[in-house]
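Hi R.,

As promised on Friday, here is the backbone we talked about, encoded as structure tokens. Could you run it through your design pipeline when you get a chance and send me back a sequence?
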């Protein structure tokens, strides 16, 4: 993508809309400081990236730059904008526009007038170097700490994604426990606590050593543990009995000190299953089916009456069959309608009696449901109370003094925790008991109603409410007891240690823990082994990243930068220069993490650092060369390069040398170069040094509230172009390429003549840059130039179309150049007489 036109309005130093047309090879813009020159490069940066590097990398508070993009004089109700037309593949055009809302924050993007969320080339922005060589490049590339410098260069080289991936791995390796789940952290903590306890027992020191060595010594550790357990139990014990016998031995001895504990009971798998089953039965039994069945029971007394009516109707229907004209009971005359009614009622009664049989089935189901609810309520209550029984019992008057003493005294923190949690547990149990009693009462009421044939739907509804109340209380009980368990962890540990110490079961208790928690210990060891491995991985990752960056920077980037740095050096420079980039190393030769150094030498001797040893002008040159080399190395979609005020702090010789850099970029590297400079004399030197590139030269000749005044200046004087064209035409060795150059000089001279005539005779400023044969002819005719001269000067364009591109089968001609030269010189003579 190459720039064709840039339009700015309401952005930075530009208030009223201004447009700049760019040459396809080289555009030079000169302006004194504070005349809006840098606003041009910033406008392009903002268009592409949505922000400028100056703001992104500022050391100052971002608040200072808030709303700094909008020009303060721009109408407050309008969005400021930057619009650029680019030449893309196939010489097509693409217009990008970014609008900055009135709030100074909201950004809207458009491609060829259509709104878009992101640019079509958005994916390449992260890896491509920015096509900007800016004044502050030195500060952000070199004059920063080595780690920040590393990050900046990684971004320049398109390696920031690689660096980001490495940093993610390093983050995991540096603080791996932070990435562990709470469960992982818990089992690691338990392992460390167990190893500490094992270490304190002389008989288990070898066990502790093996546990520290990780999974490879796990089996050895457990062989020793099992052998020690058997020794304490008095002989060889079957593997499946060992743990149970240790627990029994410990319980027997501990009971001599205190037969109980302060912990909440843990459910066995069977008990957990029973509790779940009971809760499920309670929550599903009294539902819609139960209420439907119970509703049928409420219609009592109807069945007996139906039976009597059915008997009467059975007899009556039989008699009517014998004497259909008269009622057998009252001798009334029977019409067809009456007989039909009697038969219909007979059928209806029979159907209702059949429904009565369903009532008996409902009664059976309701009775069974009430029995199930009572049974499961009893089971659920038993298991729930069992959960807290030890804790509550520990603070009963007969046990509390002993328990508190074991916990360090009645006023000890652990004793207070147990006392407090026991009180809460007791309250939770009492509330559960109350809810259970209310549910039991509701069951009794329903059963009594059924027994006494006085069922009521209100009783069934009361049962449902009592059941729901119990289930809610039970859920709350489970939740709050779980919270109590967390707060009891410390006191439980302390209490068990105190009991074990008095009972002489410390080692037995430890062996129980080791055998019970073998699976957990194995998991914790695997986690620990992985964490240890991450330390080694961290070192490997750091070295691999450094090697990758070293290869890119010490070789590729150094060579690329040296190419441009060598073009700026002068023969008179002292031999104190940049010598390359390298990753810092330790004394042992390993790379230091993310630390990039900039090397320099003085007459062949290595200096401490280029940053500390080179002059400001050489550092400035180095910063420019790094930016240029990066832009050439990773261009992305950009075919242009913006160079903003490159010659600050340079002397005349280095300024001259940099002109060669500009020419090489445009000619050899095929870059469209835009150079901005505060120094007008040097800008003109660029035009002369790159004269045959036939670029465009602008000067910002003034600055007002509306913004800069931008004037198009002549790239080269007309007579200089004519002399060069004449020299080419008269050179018998001139190649086709050279003759094409001569014809281009003639056409540009013709455009300059027309522009000069428009200014002097018509008082109108016209741009030479976009002028074609029609424009030239129109200006000359309007200015009163003789018709034959107008025809002759217009004829200089017959070898090019309106866009100055050679037509098909075009061949340059020295004679055509000579004829055009004569025509233009005569026009110049004639126009002075007009």
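Update: got your reply. Pasting your designed sequence below so it's all in one thread:
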């Amino acid at each position: 993508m190459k720039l064709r036109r840039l339009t700015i309005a309401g952005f930075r130093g530009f208030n009223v809309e201004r447009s700049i047309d760019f040459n396809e090879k080289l555009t030079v813009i000169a302006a004194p400081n504070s005349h809006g020159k840098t606003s041009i490069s910033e406008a392009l940066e903002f268009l592409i990236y949505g922000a400028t590097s100056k703001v992104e990398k500022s050391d100052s508070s971002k608040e200072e730059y808030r709303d700094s993009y909008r020009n303060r004089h721009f109408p407050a109700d309008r969005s400021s904008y930057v619009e650029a037309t680019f030449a893309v593949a196939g010489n097509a055009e693409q217009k990008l526009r970014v609008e900055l809302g009135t709030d100074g924050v909201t950004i809207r993007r458009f491609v060829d007038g259509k709104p878009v969320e992101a640019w079509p080339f958005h994916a390449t922005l992260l890896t491509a170097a920015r096509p900007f060589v800016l004044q502050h490049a030195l500060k952000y590339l070199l004059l920063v700490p080595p780690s920040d410098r590393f990050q900046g260069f990684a971004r320049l080289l398109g390696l920031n994604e690689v660096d980001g991936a490495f940093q993610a791995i390093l983050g995991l390796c540096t603080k791996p426990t932070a990435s562990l789940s709470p469960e992982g952290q818990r089992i690691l903590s338990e392992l460390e606590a167990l190893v500490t306890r094992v270490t304190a027992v002389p008989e288990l020191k070898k066990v502790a050593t093996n546990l520290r060595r990780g999974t490879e010594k796990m089996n050895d550790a457990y062989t020793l543990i099992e052998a020690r357990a058997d020794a304490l139990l008095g002989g060889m014990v079957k593997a499946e009995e060992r743990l149970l016998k240790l627990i029994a031995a410990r319980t027997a001895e501990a009971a001599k000190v205190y037969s109980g504990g302060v912990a909440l009971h843990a459910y066995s798998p069977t008990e957990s299953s029973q509790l779940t089953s009971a809760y499920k039965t309670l929550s599903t039994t009294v539902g819609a089916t139960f209420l439907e069945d119970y509703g049928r029971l409420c219609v009592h007394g109807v069945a007996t009456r139906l039976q009597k009516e059915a008997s009467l109707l059975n007899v009556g229907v039989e008699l009517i069959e014998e004497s259909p004209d008269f009622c057998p009971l009252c001798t009334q005359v029977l019409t067809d309608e009456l007989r039909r009614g009697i038969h219909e009622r007979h059928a209806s009664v029979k159907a209702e009696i059949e429904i009565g049989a369903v009532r008996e089935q409902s009664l059976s189901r309701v009775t069974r449901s009430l029995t199930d609810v009572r049974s499961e309520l009893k089971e659920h209550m038993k298991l729930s109370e069992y959960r807290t029984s030890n804790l509550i019992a520990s603070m009963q008057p007969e046990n509390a003094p002993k328990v508190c003493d074991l916990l360090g005294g009645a006023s000890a923190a652990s004793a207070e925790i147990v006392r407090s949690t026991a009180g809460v547990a007791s309250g939770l149990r009492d509330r559960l008991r109350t809810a259970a009693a209310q549910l039991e009462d509701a069951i009794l009421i329903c059963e009594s109603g059924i027994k006494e044939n006085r069922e009521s739907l209100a009783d069934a509804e009361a049962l449902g409410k009592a059941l729901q109340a119990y289930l809610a209380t039970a859920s709350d009980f489970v939740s709050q007891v779980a919270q109590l368990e967390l707060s009891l962890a410390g006191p439980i540990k302390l209490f068990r240690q105190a009991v074990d110490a008095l009972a002489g079961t410390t080692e037995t208790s430890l062996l129980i823990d080791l055998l019970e928690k073998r699976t957990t210990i194995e998991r914790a060891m695997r986690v620990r082994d992985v964490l240890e491995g991450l330390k080694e991985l961290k070192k490997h990752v750091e070295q691999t990243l450094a090697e990758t960056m070293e290869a890119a920077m010490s070789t590729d980037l150094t060579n690329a930068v040296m190419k441009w740095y060598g073009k700026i050096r002068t023969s008179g420079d002292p031999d104190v220069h940049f010598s390359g980039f390298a990753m810092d190393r330790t004394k042992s030769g390993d790379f230091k993490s993310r630390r990039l150094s900039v090397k320099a030498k003085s007459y062949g001797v290595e200096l401490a650092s280029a940053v500390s040893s080179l002059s400001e002008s050489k550092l400035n040159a180095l910063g420019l060369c790094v930016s240029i080399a990066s832009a050439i190395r990773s261009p992305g979609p950009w075919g242009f390069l913006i160079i903003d005020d490159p010659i600050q702090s340079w002397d005349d010789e280095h300024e001259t040398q940099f002109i060669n850099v500009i020419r090489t970029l445009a000619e050899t590297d095929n870059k469209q170069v835009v150079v901005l400079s505060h120094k007008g004399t040097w800008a003109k030197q660029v035009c002369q040094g790159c004269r045959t590139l036939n670029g465009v030269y602008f000067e910002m000749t003034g600055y007002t509230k509306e913004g800069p005044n931008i004037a198009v200046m002549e790239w080269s004087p007309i007579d200089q172009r004519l002399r060069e064209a004449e020299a080419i035409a008269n050179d018998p060795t001139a190649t086709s390429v050279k003759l094409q150059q001569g014809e281009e000089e003639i056409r540009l001279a013709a455009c300059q003549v027309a522009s000069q005539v428009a200014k002097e005779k018509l008082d109108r400023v016209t741009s030479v840059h976009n002028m074609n044969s029609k424009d030239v002819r129109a200006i000359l005719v309007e200015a009163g130039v003789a018709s034959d001269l107008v025809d002759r000067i217009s004829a200089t364009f017959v070898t090019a179309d309106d866009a100055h591109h050679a037509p098909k089968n075009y061949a340059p001609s020295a004679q055509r150049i000579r004829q055009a030269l004569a025509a233009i010189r005569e026009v110049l003579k004639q126009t002075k007489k007009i």
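One thing I noticed while checking it: The longest strand covers residues 591-602.

Thanks again,
M.
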